[in-house]
Amino acid sequence: MPCLICGDETTVRSHIIPRALIHAMKRPGRSLVMNRRGDTGWVECQSGAVDTRLLCERHEARLGVFDAYAVKLCKTIKREIDAGQLVIDVSNPEPGRLVAFAASVVWRYAASRSDLAPQRALGVYARRIERLLFYDEPFDPPLLVSLNAYRLDGPEIMNMGAYPHLYSELDRRFRRFIVCGVIFDLMLDNRGPPPPMATLTVNDRSGFTLFDDFPAKVMREPKLATALAAMTLPRRPYRRRP
């Protein structure tokens, strides 16, 4: 399939979420469990979802600049989480790159799951994201960043991963994904974030602080519930059918 941006017939592997972040989320001795793309189930993965039909080498490398920025930032946050820090100060010297990273994950996912037609999932925003990522045209959709505060019945906050999915809060809809204990909420409408969540916006901030301020029951999001529950259950032994 030709590159979705330039039509080059030679396309390369494109990770929906950067492989380095998928590997950083893994727990020793266990495969990473994430929500099944576009469904309510869960799936074990080694390096995350890959699509070889999206971009040529040149345009995939362009997204790699944003990926590298976010990988460094997210790994730093995860180290703080693993060390038990409840309040984390994050350096974000190039906030535009973090917004572009979130937009690229949402765009890749939309293109991959909609038979190479991201506009089916994103509408007019598919084109605006493409112009931002590949042509440096101005587009600054609100990006909200917070700590993963999903819980089961116990007090522990679970580290999990999630592919982009629609999430609603306070009469707003977000494109949400989760990596390394960090929630990314990208808004693709003209209303802006609801006032109680506005402090989570990072678009023009060279630094921000994360803390557990929105603990939530995971059952509020059925698409994530089975994935998160699978992380806490022992793996069933394989039994060969007679």
Given helix and strand content, the structural type is alpha+beta
Radius of gyration equals 18 Å
Most strands sheet: 4 strands, antiparallel
Q: Count of helical segments?
A: 6
Give me the side-by-side strand order of the main sheet: 6-10-9-8
Shape: globular
- Show unreliable segments: 151-157, 231-242
Keywords:
single chain, 242 residues, alpha+beta, two-stranded antiparallel ribbon, 33% helix
Word description of this protein:
33% of the residues lie in helices and 21% in strands. The strands form 5 sheets. Strands 6-10-9-8 form a 4-stranded antiparallel beta sheet. Helix 1 packs parallel to helix 2 and helix 3 packs across helix 5. The longest helix has 26 residues.
